[in-house]
Batch of 2 targets.
Target 1
Amino acid sequence: MIVYLNGKFLPLEEAKISVLDRGFIFADGVYEVIPAYGGKLFRLSEHLQRLENSLNSIKLPNPLTESEWIEILETVIAKNSGTNQSIYLQITRGPAKRNHSFPEQIIPTVFVMSEELKSLPPSTGVKAITCNDTRWQNCDIKSIALLANILLRNQAVETGATEAILLRDGYVMEGAASNVFVIVDNIAITPPKSQFILPGITRDLILEAMNAAKLPCKEADIPVAQLEAATEIWITSSTKEIVPIIELDGRTIGTGKPGRVWSQVCEIYQDYKQRLYSND
Ligand code: PDD
C-alpha cells in the first residue's frame, strides 16, 4: 500500500511520525473517509467542506488548498489497487512538546491511505443494540478522538450485534459510526443536524435521492418510543451505504427481514449514485 505523509508518497511500512505527534498524545486531529468508485472520488466537495468545518471547529488552518487535496487524493488512488477504494485522510496538530495548550509553531501532520472497497453483497440485515450516548457535545466534528465510539461499538459487538444506536436525553442520535433512519407510517425519518450527530454525507445523499424520487422522508427528532413503532430501521455510512437493522435489543424489527422501503431506497440510491458519479 502506498500512502501519503507530509508531502511524500511512500510504502505504508516507511510512513513514520513522531511519538510526540499531538494526534498520538492527545487525539488532537480530524479525519475524513471518502469512497472512490472507478477511481473517481465520490461527493468530494461535500467531504472537503466537512473537513474544512471540522478543521475550523478545532482551530487548525487547512494546510492544503482544494487543488492540492485533489491531487494528493487522486495520486493515492492511482498508486493503490482496487476499482473501488475507501480513502482515509487525517490531519493532526503535529509534533510538539506535550502541553495541552496549542504549540506556538504548528507543523500539522497530513496522512492519507487507501483501502480496497469490496462491492457489498445485498444486505440480509444486522442486529443492533441501544446505548446511552456517552460521547461529548461536539459530535459534528469528525474528530479522531473516537474512544467513546469504540467502546460503544465494542459493547454492541460483545453482545453479537453490529452497531450501537446512541440515545441522548430520550432521543435517537446516530450509530457509533453511522447515521440512523427509522421508518414510521411509511415515512423515513432521520434526526436533524446538530452538535450531537455527525452530518453524514450518505445521510444527505439518501434525503436528496428520496426527495428527487418523491418518496416521503423528513428530518425530525426521534423519541426513543418511536423505535418501537418503527417498521424499519437503517444505519448509513460512506463505506457500508444503507444497512437494515432487523433486530434491536433482541426485538425483531418489522418482519425480521430487510424492509420494502429499504429495497426501494437502495435501488434509487444506487441509480442516483451512478448518475452523480458519471456526471461529476
Ligand atoms: N464513519 N456518524 C458517525 C459517528 C460516523 O463515524 C460516520 C462515518 C457517520 C456516517 O457518515 P458518512 O455518511 O459521511 O460516512 C455518521 C466513517 C465511515 C468511519 O469512521 O470510518
Target 2
Amino acid sequence: MSATPEQFAATGTLDVEALRAEFPALHQEINGHPLIYLDSAASAQRPAVVIDAIADYYRHDHANVHRGVHTLSDRATRAFEAARERVAGFINAAATHEVIWTRGTTEAINLVAQSHLRPRIGPGDEILVTWMEHHSNIVPWQLVCEQTGARLVAAPVTDAGEIDMAAFERLLGPQTRLVAVNHVSNALGTINPVARIVELAHAHDAPVLVDGAQAAPHLQVDVQALGCDFYAFSGHKVFGPTGIGVLWGRETLLDAMPPWHGGGEMIREVSFDGSTWNELPFKFEAGTPHIAGAVGLAAALEWLEHQDRTALAAHEADLLAHATHTLSEFEGLRIVGTAPHKASVVSFVFNDIHAHDIGTILDHEGVAIRTGHHCTMPLLRHYGLAATARASFSVYNTRAEIDRLAAALAKALTLFR
Ligand code: PLP
C-alpha cells in the first residue's frame, strides 16, 4: 500500500458513503445495531454489480461452456473466457492461458504442490516457507513431504511480525526446490518483500509461489514485476464470489506440469490405451467449471479497476492508522503485528479476556470481527498465543466504525472487570 494518510488528506477523492451504498449487505442491523463489518480479511462483501452479474448470467446466458454449438453455450463460453482475460489484466499476466481457474487459493496451492513439485522432489530436498503462512500454504507442502521424503523448512518471523530476511537467506540453498510465501499476512497484516524474496530464491534456482489471498484486495498486483513463478488468490476476498479463485503460473512451468485432476475438458484424446492432454489452461480444468463464479469475479475486478485505487489504498491506510492509534489507547491491549509496512489488518489481545469472548460481546453490539488462530497456528504459537481478535478493514469501512469498535471494546472491558 503506497499511499499514506497524509497523501489521502491531500487527495481526499474517495466518497466512502457513495461507495458503501453499493454494498447491500452492509445496510442491515445486527442485534439492534447497525452492522459494522470488520471481517473482510476472512471474506469481503460484494457490490451489487457483482450480485447482479451473477443473477443476469443465470437468468439469460447459462449453458455449459466450450463444447456447445448453440447460442447460449457460446454466450457462456465468451463470458467465461472474457473473465479469464480480465484476471490476466488484473495481475498483468503475460498471457491469458497462464490463468487457471481453481476453487480458491487453497486449491491453487495444492495444484502446484501435486503437479509441479511432487514429481520433482525427494529425500534431501526442501520446501521453504515462513512462520507466518496460512495453513493452506503449509499443509499442501507437508502432504508432498510425506509423499516424497522431502522436508518443509520455515523461516522465522521477528517480534514485529516481519520475515527475518537474514535467516530466510541462510535457509536457502541448492536443496531448496521451492519457496512459498504470502504476499500479505492474514494474521498480522504484514506486506512482505516479495520481489526481494524472488530475487534471493532465483539465485538458488528455486521457483517462488506467492499466496496472494490477502494482497489481491489491497495491492495492485503485477506478477511480471514481482518476478514470481506462481501466484494464487481467491475471488471472495476481492469482492467476488466464493468457490472461484485463480492460479497464475509461468507458461514454461505450467507446460511442463502433468494434469492434476482427470476428467472431461482437460483431455485432447481419450482411448482405453491412454489419453492425451488438452492445451493450457484447460489441461488443469477437469469437469464443468464454476462459470457463474468466473463471471462474478470478472465483475468484481472490473468494479475494483474502475475505482481510484490510489484513493482506496490511501483510505485503507488512514483506517489502519486510526485503528492502530485508537486501539493503542486501551491499557492492556496488545497489537500483534506491528510491521511498518502493513495492510489494513489489526490483530490484538486484550488483558486476559479470551478472544472469542471479545468477539461475542462485539457481535452483541453489531460489530463483526474474527477471533481464533486465523489458520496460522504455528505463528500464534510462536507469539505464545492460542487466539487473537482481528479487525480487518476494507474500502467500505469508516473511521466512525472504528470508533464504534472502540466503544464496544470499552463495554467488553467493563463486563470483565
Ligand atoms: N492464504 C491466506 C493468506 C489467507 O488469508 C487465506 C484465507 O483466509 C487463504 C490462503 C485461503 O484462502 P481460501 O480459503 O479462499 O482458499
